[in-house]
Design a protein that fits this description.
The protein is built from five helices and no strands. The protein has two domains: 58 residues; 50 residues. Helices cover 81% and strands 0% of the residues. The termini are far apart. It has 124 residues and is an all-alpha fold.
């Protein structure tokens, strides 16, 4: 059996056990999962940093390094713009479906003494 098949079987099995198991089991297994994910992070972060350092160090000319830097900057700006546009398009329809109880919304407001100490918003 290939590694991909075993990983997919493990994912499906974990999903099924997670949906069927009672809530008490999740409280017991939760810390183990957190430790596992943190261990993966501890392994991956040094590998990524060392790969970045070695790839930047292997670039011979400063012109090529500058081009790589500009490409990375442009890619970051494009990704941020796409994420912002997607958020702007998706947020309104999704948030309009959220029903908030009026009493819960009123509980989020500051007490009158704190509200009086704040300056009025510019639109008011």
């Amino acid at each position: 059996m290939s590694l991909t098949t075993r990983v997919l079987i493990g994912l499906v099995t974990g999903f099924l056990v997670g949906t069927v198991a009672p809530a008490g089991v999740a409280a017991i297994i939760g810390p183990v999962g957190t430790i596992f994910v943190n261990l993966i992070r501890m392994t991956v972060l040094p590998l990524v940093v060392s790969m970045l350092i070695s790839s930047v160090g292997s670039i011979a000319s400063s012109r090529a390094l500058g081009r790589a830097g500009w490409r990375a900057t442009i890619a970051m700006v494009v990704l941020v713009a796409v994420a912002a546009a997607a958020s702007a398009l998706i947020a309104q329809p999704v948030l309009s479906r959220v029903q908030i109880d009026r009493s819960a919304a009123l509980m989020l407001q500051p007490p009158p003494a704190v509200a009086a100490a704040r300056p009025a918003p510019p639109d008011a």
